[in-house]
Structure formats: structure tokens, C-alpha cells
Design brief:
It is a single chain. The chain has helices at residues 2-31, 40-62. It starts with a helix and ends with a helix. With 66 residues, it is mainly alpha-helical.
């Protein structure tokens, strides 16, 4: 029972993280200039991969394969 609730929460958190990463990527490409941090791309990639991992963990937890 709790595994399914935690699984759904992780999937939702991962989807939200991927959405925020995509939105930040669009913001950086439109408004980024020379003063934009050089670590922005690294932060964007890490944020996206974290969202993918959350979705994967959520699916695995939901189906109790973790």
C-alpha cells in the first residue's frame, strides 16, 4: 500500500523536475548572455537526470521491483 503511494509521489516529483528543467533551459537560451554562469548547463543536465531517476525509482517502487 505505502509502496504505491511513495511510487506515485516519486513519479510526480520526477515529472515536475523534468518540467522545471525544460522551463529553465528555455529561459537560459532566451535570456542568457555573457553574465550567465558557465555552470548553468551542468545544473540543467543534472536537474533533468535527477527527474528521470525519480521517475524510474517511482515506477520501480510502484511495482515493488526495487
Amino acid at each position: 500500500m505505502w509502496e504505491r503511494i511513495v511510487g506515485v509521489l516519486f513519479v510526480l516529483l520526477g515529472i515536475w523536475q523534468i518540467y522545471i528543467s525544460k522551463r529553465y533551459g528555455h529561459h537560459v537560451t532566451k535570456h542568457g548572455d555573457a553574465s550567465t554562469s558557465s555552470f548553468s548547463l551542468l545544473a540543467l543536465a543534472d536537474s533533468f537526470y535527477l527527474g528521470v531517476m525519480f521517475v524510474g525509482i517511482g515506477i520501480a517502487t510502484f511495482f515493488m521491483q526495487f
